[in-house]
Each structure stands twice: as structure tokens, then as C-alpha cells.
Amino acid sequence: SIATRLDDVNDTWSSGGGYIIQGTRAVASRTIPTVRISRSSENASHWANGATFRKFLMQYCTHYIDDFGTNDLATGRTAAQALADKQTIWADFRARAIGYGYIINTPVAPKVTSTDSYATLANQTPISGFATGAARDTLNSSVLALVGASNGPDEIIDTNLAWADSVSLDKFPVTGAANYATDDGVHPAAGLHTTAASRVATAAAKWRV
After folding, report:
1. Do 61 and 33 meet the contact criterion of CB atoms below 8 Å apart?
2. Between 79-96 and 135-145, two packed helices, what is the crossing angle to 10 degrees?
3. Do residues 190 and 10 make contact, with C-beta atoms less than 8 angstroms apart?
4. With 141 labelled, which of 111, 124, 157, 160 sits at a CA distance of 20 to 30 A?
5. pTM of this prediction?
6. How many CB atoms lie within 10 A of CB 16?
7. CB 68 within 8 A of CB 86
């Protein structure tokens, strides 16, 4: 649901739509044609049980941005299981895409609870699997280690530079204002989508077909 733009503003063709749509909308004075195939509340494991239409669409694509992982870990999948599921999707994409099939991964964001509407770091508590050193870190580091490998992504866009606090990496950033970075401990606020989108745009400016 992060990729489907939840908590960002609606896509107006000129703004909003989530960080991926925003980031590919204006790249070196051009728009990269983009199809969003994500679904809210979906796990990477669901891919093996369907996704027939989305696999069909892959034949018209050259690049794939993957942000699976949050729902997988939150529903009890291990980091190893989530990685294997993501690799299934990557293999499907490379088998169907135009040309090589370039894969970009974004890391799993924080997932926390709060007792003060996410206003302070002290009152944020990472849920099980999302604390420093837990499954979230394991999955993110495992994907990073595979960059450039035949069973890994070609590139990482580190959206956690926008999503996560710069010191407490398993929590959302704060300003002291309620709901500044998130209003539910899962979905980044619109301002964070915009920041992450700039990182996507910077990366996309270097992509070639």
C-alpha cells in the first residue's frame, strides 16, 4: 500500500500518486511511462498464487521497482521466505521484460506503534520483526548483498533515507509535531513521499533501455 500511494495525495497527473509515480513523472524534463501493479495489503508470497495479468504486463516493461517486504514480515514470513518470494518475482520479470529487465529494489520501511501520535522517537516502538537487528534489517541487508547478482536486483534506491530517522533507523523521523512522518506507523506521510520521489527521479535519470 506504500507503493499504491496510501497517505500521499491522489494522482492528479501533475502531482501525488505515491513516491514511484511522482519520481518517474518528471525525469530530466520528461515523463517515464509507468504502470503501477501493486495492490494494498499484498505480500510477495501472493505472487506465486496468481498475478497472471500483472505477469502479462511485464512484457511491455523495461524496469521494475520492487518494494515488497513490509506486509510479508508483518504477517509472519521470515526474512529468508520474503527474499525467496521477491526473487521469484524478479525471475518472472527478467523472463518477460523487454531487453534485460532492470530491477530496482527499495528497502523495507519502519513499522511502529506510538503513544503520542508519532511526535517523538521515545514513544515509538517497532513492532515484532522491525526493530534494529531483526527480520527487517536481515531482509534489507540480504537484498543489498545481492545487487548485481543474477538472482538479485540491479540497483537499490534507499528510500529509508526519507522514511527512517537518521539515528534511530527503526523509527520514523520526528519534528515534535503529531503525525509528521506517519499517521499509522506504517505508511509515510505525503511529505516523505515527495522526498523519496526525488531519489527515484535521480536514479531514473540514469536509466537506459
Report:
1. no
2. 40
3. no
4. 124
5. 0.91
6. 18
7. yes
